[in-house]
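So, read this over?
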Amino acid sequence: MGITLWGKTDNFLFSNNGFSEITGYSENDIKTLDDWFSLAYPDREYRKKVLKDWKESSNTKEAIRQFKVECKSGEMKDIEFRVAFLKDGRSLVTMSDTTWRVKAEEEKINAQKLVEEHKKLSLVGQIAGKMAHDFNNILGIIMGNSELALSDCPDDQTKKRLELIYNQTIRGKNLTKNLVAFAKDQEPKQEFFSIDEKIDLVLNLLKKDLEGINVMRRYTHGTPELLADSGMIEHAMVNLVQNSIHAVSLTERPEIMVHTYHQGELVFIEIEDNGCGIPPDFLGEIYEPSFTLKGSKDKTGNYKPDIKGTGYGMSNVKKYIEQHNGKISVDSIVDSGTKIRISLPVVQKELTSEEKIEIQKETVHFEKYILLVEDEQAIADVQYRILTQDPCNHKVDTVKNGQVAMDLFDRNKYDLVSLDYILPGNINGMDVYHHIRKTNKTIQILFVSGNIEFLESIKELKQRDTSIDHLAKPCKNIDYLNCINKLFSRGV
């Protein structure tokens, strides 16, 4: 706890070591209360708020306040202050660093919001999925018969009407495709692939729609491969490029720029156009299911009349990116254009030399016997490599199937189990976990999964079982090894 004593004239009289440990400041940095406010609250507006609260509290014998403080290092901390106003006019102030508590509360609130959001989307998805299935059957009949009628229609007027019907069934097909994608709450199927090649494929697929548009493609040398679901990423890119195509439909000199690059452990994708832009009032709604500004919702004539929106494109894009632990941002100016930026984490195929040095600094457990249960071959290969090589040199059995995992566990004496949740067949990771716990209550188990249903249930399970931990896919190699080392240390 930090302690400070202030004089009647707001001069700084005393501070203990705790004050310096929390804030980094010493008596040499602060002579008066004005010095403290200037250093701790450099933002003028926030400083005014703190000063106002401070003055209001001076009318009471004791006050408790919480403020964000900028420490000498530049780090921002949440600090709880308790002020006691003494009879002789001096003030005794104690402080506690509550950053961890505030962060925990924020995480709890965000987790609750996420659960509610998933519940809402799950319900919408279930309804959408059922509707899409039935709608596809109806569309198939209309599409097939209109196409047959078109093939031998002698009347031009009737032919135009049939073409209209056929084109609308194509639009309906695209709508149901997005509905089905939205309804499926599936875990990404991970594989390594080149994001540059994937985007070039998407641009080639949309080549006809891009006619008349100046497409600028920027690459950066050495962009690493992504470990991701290539189908989901492709679907996301198609939706984003199509949005840009629609946005420039009435632009005199339409341009779309696609730029891929990497910084540190992130790959970035930027798609920018000089189209109609998105009004500021609607930027917060673009990820809402069924939201669109096209077709009948286009009140200001920003798009060609024949352009329609499904309303599920951006909600799917956001869903895909978040399932890969990525982020998406949108910057848009009306009549100037829109820029979408996506960042996705890079998972290396093996530990870097820097990571090996970092691992060796910690308490490293080596030459253990590990059961690795993972059905994604690309992920299993990476995990096997980093576990069996320096500095760990573990012995590892790798399996893809839940039943085989249980059989192997019964026959061998493992030190730890690395366990995926979604596995092929009728036995999932939780079934394997319960089988293990029937005979072994203490072996350390690391769940590695990005499944939303599982991530919600694991929190309660961790409270009951202290010999488990979990990581969400995709995870960095060093995080994976650090978590395994932590589990081994816990089990010692």
In short: Residues 2-97 form a domain with the Beta-Lactamase fold (CATH 3.30.450.20). The longest helix spans residues 99-151.
